[in-house]
Each structure stands twice: as C-alpha cells, then as structure tokens.
Write a structure and sequence with these properties.
By secondary structure, the protein is an alpha/beta fold. The protein folds into two domains: 3-290, Rossmann fold, CATH 3.40.50.720; 295-491, Orthogonal Bundle (N-(1-d-carboxylethyl)-l-norvaline Dehydrogenase, domain 2). Helix content is 44%, strand content 12%. The chain has 21 helices and 13 strands. Strands 6-3-2-7-8 form a five-stranded parallel beta sheet, sandwiched between helices. Strand 4 and strand 5 form a beta hairpin. The chain is globular and about 65 Å long. This is Mannitol-1-phosphate 5-dehydrogenase. Its EC number is 1.1.1.17. It catalyses: D-mannitol 1-phosphate + NAD(+) = beta-D-fructose 6-phosphate + NADH + H(+). Residues 34-283 form the Mannitol dehydrogenase N-terminal domain.
C-alpha cells in the first residue's frame, strides 16, 4: 500500500476502507452520549468502547454513546487525534500467527479536554441523558494510602479542587461537582463505574470519592453514600502501548492513516456487578458477564495475571529481555511463573464460578507469549508502587498467615528493589517510571549495605519488614540477584 493510497480516518473516509476492515454498521449521527468516561487510553478503547460498538452494530444502545474526558496534560494528544478523526479509531487484534484483525470503533462520539472548558464537561455530566460515568484513571488516580487504605488528599489537584468556589480540574473534582449539581437540580445520580485494576474497584471508588466529597460538603457526601451506585468490575485484555510500527503496519496492510490506533490480544473478558442506579446498556448481549459478586474473578485476575506480569517483568528485564513474549518463551521463566501461580497465588483464591483455574493459568502463559502483541517489559515495570502493594503483597501476607511458602513472591519484591537501582546486569541504565521514583531509587541505591531499607517504607510495605520469614526470603533473594544475577537465581541455589 503506497502513501497515496492511504485513507485518513474520519467520517468521510470510513466507508471507503476495504472489506478486510470492520466499520460501524450503524448511523453514528443517531448515536447520543449516555456515558462520560474519564481516562480514554488504549485499555478503555480496547474494552468498554469496543463492547458498546458491538452493541451498536446489533442495533442496540444508540443512546449509550461515549463522551471521553481528559484531565491531564498528556490527554491533549488524545483530544487532537480523536477530534481530527471524528472520534473514530482502529482497534487491531493481533493474533499469535501474525494475523491482524482491524475494526474501526465508532462508540466515542465526543471528546472533551477538561482544562479547555470544564463547564462543558460538567454540562455533559449533569445532562439527564448521562447515566453512567466510567473510569480508567489508573491505580494511582484513586488517591488511596497504600497501607491504611484511607483517602489521601495530598495531591495538588485535589487540594485545588477543595478550595471554596474552585472550578474543578481533577477527575475526582469533576465527578463530585457533577453529582452536586445533579442533586441540586433534582436530577437522579449517575452510576460511577470503575474499570481499573484495583481490588474492589467499585468499593474503592465509592469510599475515596465520598471521602473527597466529605471534605467539601458533608451533606453531599451523605447523599452520595445513599444514592450513587458503584458497581465492581474485572476487566481483562492485554493492551500494549501503541508503537509507530503499529501505525505503519496499519497503513501498509490496510491503507488506514490513523493517528492513534489501539492494538490488543484476541482475549477479552469483562465481569461486571449488576448494580446500577438506573438504566444500563444490555452488556450481557455482547459477552459481558453480569454477576452478583465480582470478587472471585477479580482476585483471580489481580493475583494471577497482574501479579504474574510483575513476576516476569523485573526478572526478565534484569536478565536482558525487553518484551513479555520473550520471557514467556523461556522455559526457566515459565516454570517460575507457574510455580508462583500454583504454589503461592492459587492457595489465596476463593473458588471462581465457571472457571478452570489450571486451564486459566496455562492460558495466561500462552497470552503472555503472543509475539505479535509485543508488550514491553518497561510498560509492565512502570508505576510499581501502585501495583505491587495491591497485587502481590496481599498474596505474601495471606501465605505468611497460613504458614505457606512465599519464596517466589519475595523474589519478585527483591527483583523490583534491584530494578529500582536504575542499572541492569549489563551495566546499562534503567529508566524507572514511577510517581515515587525519587524515593524508590534513593532507597534502592543502598540495597547492598542496607538490604532492608527498600522494604522498610511502611507507606508501601506496612509491617512486612517485621516478619522474620519475609525478611529471610527477601534478603536471600536480593543477595542472589546481586551476586549471581536473575537467571542464575531462578536456576536455584549455587553449588
């Protein structure tokens, strides 16, 4: 496909794409916003927006279009791309055999960058047609103290939004102000639907948003507690960062000039608590599992998939790998991952209705090993301070309480500490990406002379440093990583 054959994606050109490309079969002009979504990134566009597009293609949910909202400076790029493409983007499913399955998604019909016009965002949120506000604002976006579980109002954006009369700038500020205006106008509340990788994400969203509201208006907080529904959910689809090579492949193979396509694996799962304050789309018609209790599915995903991503990313990076599929094509690492899942994570899980856990775990390895997805270890290593405390440390604590093994999980924590030193085993610099980067790197610099300093941060690790079994396993693992390296450590004790 030559450059002159390219179609710049947009409403005027979508009908000219080839038969190999799926396009909206519905009249997008008839779609009306019913959902406001904060955090329009790859994950949302490979998941919630995709399911709604499926419904619309079946002639349903045309009153459930998405109004995307960005609040952070990097969101300006998403604004520019989506506005230039009339909200359209290409979702490319990448199969292990190299096949690419592109589909143009049309469910996002509006995108607002809140700093441009916060009142426009609030007007959309107070419109009675908006019945759901959904969130993918990352684990750190909920402002949870990692040890106490309580709300942490220290973020500068939150402090600004708590000032009397302030025009809100943060996602929390906008969501709460939207609810306040609906209450004042006598408009029923919207449902707040978290889609982030957090245990009990609906419960956490309710507790944190209500705590924020209580600092502004205690009566509003009481109303939110009574009136607003916060369903829990578990969402699962590996969605790596879009690379320039993905855009080039889409252009060359399918003739689509898309400023920001999304690539993902074939697997997708969404388990959603059927707890909505009003109407909702008929998600179950397109494969979403509507259940009364999400927790078993959620724990399965967080402690098997998400924690296993942490188990492979630091050790794999230190050993010289740069992609998840490379690690999961190495039997030594696969055996370690399955050992962690079988011996340490699975004993902490309740029964999961309708799921064969043994099959699920082997399927995870197959998904991680998909060479076409090209999920970078750097992405998986990012923001560890928001991930390890939620995904891996609960496994360690439950295993310790039950007197069961923790050696593999402790090695993962040690590998994080070793990674945070900022230099790999070949002496090459590591770019540590974390909101707590400075503190983590400073502590990790002392790993050799003070091996407990990194895990003595009680804001992240609580009292684990006081547990002799954990300390013994952690320090042994850290010492081996320093003296022998990641690969030799996985191979077993020296001699």
């Amino acid at each position: 496909m030559t450059q002159t054959n390219l179609n710049k994606l947009g409403s005027a050109t979508v009908g000219a794409l080839g038969n190999e490309v799926g396009v909206p079969a519905y009249d997008r002009g008839a779609v009306r916003p019913g959902i406001v979504h904060f955090g329009v990134g790859g994950f949302h566009r490979a998941h919630e927006a995709m399911y709604l597009d499926r419904l619309m293609n079946e002639g349903q949910a045309l009153d459930w279009g998405i109004c995307g909202v960005g609040t952070m400076p990097p969101d300006q790029r998403m604004r520019d791309v989506l506005q230039a493409q009339d909200g359209l983007y290409t979702l490319v499913v990448k199969h292990p055999d190299g096949a690419m399955e592109p589909r143009v998604i049309g469910s996002i019909v509006e995108y607002l960058y809140a700093p441009d016009d916060p009142e426009a965002v609030l007007a959309r949120m107070t419109d009675p047609a908006t019945r759901i506000v959904s969130l993918t604002i990352t684990e750190g976006g909920y402002h949870v103290n990692q040890v106490t579980g309580e709300f942490d109002p220290g973020d500068p954006g939150l402090r600004h939004d708590l000032e009397p009369g302030a025009v809100p700038t943060s996602a929390f500020g906008l969501v709460v102000e939207g609810l306040a205006r609906r209450r004042a106008a006598g408009v029923p509340s919207y449902t707040v639907m978290s889609c982030d990788n957090i245990p009990g994400n609906g419960h956490v969203a309710k507790r944190m948003l209500t705590s924020f509201a209580r600092l502004k208006d205690p009566e509003l907080a009481d109303w939110i507690e009574r009136e607003v529904r916060f369903p829990n959910s578990m969402v699962d689809r590996i969605t790596p960062v879009t690379a320039d090579t993905d855009k080039e492949a889409l252009a060359q193979r399918f003739g689509i000039d898309d400023g920001w396509p999304v690539v993902c694996e074939p697997f997708t799962q969404w388990v959603l608590e059927d707890d909505f304050g009003g109407d909702r789309p008929p998600f179950e018609d397109v494969g979403v599992q509507l259940v009364s209790d999400v927790e078993p599915y959620e724990l399965m995903k967080l402690r098997l998939l998400n924690a296993s991503h942490q188990a492979l990313c630091y050790l794999g990076y230190l050993a010289g790998y740069r992609y998840a599929h490379e690690v999961c094509q190495d039997k030594l690492f696969v055996d370690f991952l399955l050992g962690y899942m079988d011996e340490e994570a699975t004993p902490t899980l309740p029964p999961v209705p309708g799921v064969d856990l043994d099959r699920y775990k082997h399927q995870l390895i197959e998904r991680f090993a998909n060479p076409e997805v090209r999920d970078t270890l750097a992405r998986l290593c990012a923001e560890s301070s928001d991930r390890i405390p939620k995904w891996l440390l609960p496994v360690i604590r439950e295993q310790l309480a039950a007197g069961r093994g923790i050696d593999r999980a402790a090695l993962v924590v040690a590998a994080w500490a070793r990674y945070a030193e900022g230099v790999d085993e070949q002496g090459e610099p590591i770019e540590v990406v974390d909101r707590l980067r400075d503190k983590l790197v400073e502590r990790a610099q002392h790993n050799r002379e003070d091996p407990l300093l990194f895990v003595s941060d009680r804001d992240l690790f609580g009292d684990l440093v006081d547990d002799e079994r954990f300390v013994r396993a952690y320090t042994s693992a850290l010492s081996s990583l320093h003296e022998r390296g990641a690969r030799a450590t996985l191979e077993g004790p020296a001699g």
